[in-house]
Amino acid sequence: MGLESKMGGIITTQLDKVVNWARKNSLWPMPFGVACCAIEMMATLCSRYDMSRFGAEVIRFSPRQSDLLLVSGRISIKMMPVLTRIYEQMPEPKWVISMGACCSSGGVFDTYTLIQGIDQFLPVDVYIPGCPPRPEALLDALMFIQKKISTERIQDRIHGN
Amino acid sequence: MSRLENEKLLSLLQEMMGDLIVNHHDFRGLLSVDIHGKDILTLVSCIHQDSRLNFPLLVDVSGVDYLEYDDEACLERFAVIYIFYSIVHDCRIKIRAFVPESDPAIHSIYNEYKGADFTEREVYDMFGIRFIDHPNLKRILMPEDYGSNPLRKDYPLKGLGERSQFPKYNIYNKIEND
Ligand code: SF4
Asked: Smaller CB count within 10 Å for chain B: N or C?
């Protein structure tokens, strides 16, 4: 790992602030859009709602270059290993947004093949309700993640806690 | 060539197949023919190769589970339904081949119609009907280690716990153990 593994027990409050400020204003999302919610996600990224106002416009389709996993859509049993692998490939620190009813709880698809909420196998930071959530809701979730980042300490991320 | 009328089609089929055709009916202009699963290859090769019939296009293969279905026409629990289309005659035919529950297996028609590859795999996946001599018979929609056949009528809609009882592992513990 990077900076945080060199920190030991040093008190680093001011450094935390600087690092968090940098992290929260340049989130690099990894979009995992597998169903209708992804359309709203695309709308959020486009000019009308414009996620770049919050510093998160650089969509990376490679998990190795991103730190925010945006899961939007239904995750089936067959898709679960793929998503797990993608999450594992993302470098620390990383955050996860679960967008939409399907992703957070299975939604209306209470059937045999759908995982009833990705929190069964991924640590989710923010859930967005709605079917689909409006772009404003996604922006709100992003700001929530930013708020969460600004309260973190660098050491917290050493083992990813 | 002109349109092949259903009566003509049926009499041609009966002439070739004899009493292998167990039942037939006509619903809104679609001729439907019932047979036993073991006779499927005979019928399909007639349909494909006989120049008077000439059905070059396989439209679909699907399965049905007639569990608790109260109808004399249902000979067995499962049926595989084939729909063929004739481009020259502009007509369709539906074939219903019944497959017993004790040994759900039927011959693949892949050698006659290559398009049956994926559709037969879907029926195998959803109903557990084996297709003998299929070149690549494995699940197509569900994960390969999925134990059940979801479209069988006695399978619950919410599954048998497959959607929640997978090996869960803690991503962070894994890092610590390394
Ligand atoms: S929550 Fe609604 S919009 Fe989103 S993936 Fe599910 S069905 Fe589609």
From this structure: C
Count of domains observed in chain A: 1
CATH code at position A36: 3.40.50.12280
pTM of the model: 0.82
Residues B6-141: name the CATH superfamily: NADH:ubiquinone oxidoreductase Nqo5 subunit (3.30.460.80)
Please report, for chain B, the start and end positions of each structural domain, with discontinuous segments joined by +.
6-141
Q: Does A120 touch chain B (CB under 8 A)?
A: yes
A57 lies in a domain? yes
A88 part of contact set with chain B, CB < 8 Å:
yes
Chain A residues in contact with B156 by the CB 8 A cut-off are 112
Atom of ligand 1 nearest to the CA of A74: 5
Do the chains contact at B159 and A113, CB–CB below 8 Å?
Answer: yes
Q: What is the DSSP string of B61-116?
A: EEEEE-TT---TT--SSEEEEEEEEETTTTEEEEEEEEE-SSS-EEE--TTT-TTH
B142 shares contact with chain A (CB less than 8 Å):
yes
Q: Highest mean pLDDT: which of B2-6, B64-68, B79-83, B156-160?
A: B79-83
Q: Whose CA is nearest to atom 5 of ligand 1?
A: A73
The mean per-residue pLDDT over the stretch B81-94 comes to: 90
SS percent in chain B: helix, strand, coil, step 5:
25, 25, 50
Residues of A in contact with B175 (CB under 8 A): 159-160
Residue holding tokens 């900076």? A3
Say if residue B177's pLDDT is above 70.
Answer: no
A69 occurs within a structural domain: yes
Task: With respect to residue A6, please indicate whether it lies within any of the assigned structural domains.
Answer: no
Q: A17 lies in a domain?
A: no
From the centroid of its chain, how far is CA B112?
Answer: 15
- Among the atoms of ligand 1, which is closest to the Cα of residue A101? 1
Matching residue, tokens 């049993």: A77
- The answer, yes or no, to whether any atom of ligand 1 lies below 6 A from the CB of A132, is yes
- The size of chain A, in residues, is 161
